[in-house]
Amino acid sequence: MACLSPSQLQKFQEDGFLVLEGFLSADECEAMQRRIDEIVAEMDVPLHCRTEFSTQEEEQLRAQGSTDYFLSSGDKIRFFFEKGVFDKQGNFLVPPEKSINKIGHALHALDPVFRCVTHSHKVQALARSLGLQMPVVVQSMYIFKQPHFGGEVAPHQDASFLYTEPLGRVLGLWIALEDAMLENGCLWFIPGSHTGGVSRRMVRTPAGSVPGTSFLGSEPIRDNSLFVPTPVLRGALVLIHGEVVHKSEQNLSDRSRQAYTFHLMEAAGTIWSPDNWLQPTPELPFLPLYT
């Protein structure tokens, strides 16, 4: 089972992240990739991506559509695209399966394959060995990191977007479904950066305003030499503390870097910020991890 040893626990507490190689088998990775291919094949492209916009008003409507699509994605399976993959009429300039940045945010709840992985005995055992009493799953994403133009992810803390009181209650589980190496955009971390609080928060703006979110505070300028690259092989799981600073570079290689990631929150004694972009809904409350 995926229980952490005392030394692994200590390393996670010191660094704010931990690599568990070989967490999933090649077959388990393959099953998720096959399923995502099916989901993409049946994809409905969102209307705001299809809209031709010219006037300022139309541009605003498109931005509003994009905002609404994102803000209401917490209990749905939705598609988010790389920049520059549509022409003015909303037609694909590259094959659809090569255009997607990510799929979010409720694969863990709405798709049987991803639900099975998220609630697996291995994941439950891992959460128990971390001492989680009442973990709930708050969101999930399938990240494509497409060859040649998979976008960089700027340095950030997950708790900027998934804020709790007290802090320290959010945990990311990031599973490499393909080798994640330097050349195709592996994760980079600043070890020990999870102890200084949160420098920036993304909050919802009043309903109907565009954009639908804004930022409080700002990301400090961080010394690039503090970041440590964390290449991993297919099947590895990376544990990510909600406040550890991490990033990934653009993928300029000819290999994608697919990953499945989801976030847990310790619900016991925790307040989920009502200002977070993501909110549980009557249709989909945050689901308990332990079954």
UniProtKB/TrEMBL annotation:
Coiled coil: none
Gene3D superfamilies named in the record: q2cbj1_9rhob like domain
Keywords noted in UniProt: Dioxygenase, Iron, Metal-binding, Oxidoreductase
Entry annotated with the keyword Transport: no
Species this chain originates from: Bison bison bison (North American plains bison)
The protein's name in its UniProt record: Phytanoyl-CoA dioxygenase domain-containing protein 1
The UniProt record lists the keyword Oxidoreductase: yes
Cofactor(s) the record lists: Fe cation
Role of this protein: 2-oxoglutarate(2OG)-dependent dioxygenase that catalyzes the conversion of 2-oxoglutarate to succinate and CO(2) in an iron-dependent manner. However, does not couple 2OG turnover to the hydroxylation of acyl-coenzyme A derivatives, implying that it is not directly involved in phytanoyl coenzyme-A metabolism. Does not show detectable activity towards fatty acid CoA thioesters.
InterPro entries in UniProt: Phytyl_CoA_dOase-like
Family: Belongs to the PhyH family. PHYHD1 subfamily.
GO molecular function: 2-oxoglutarate-dependent dioxygenase activity; metal ion binding
Source species, domain of life: Eukaryota
Pfam families with a match to the protein in the record: PhyH
TM stretches of this protein: none
Xref: SUPFAM superfamilies: Clavaminate synthase-like
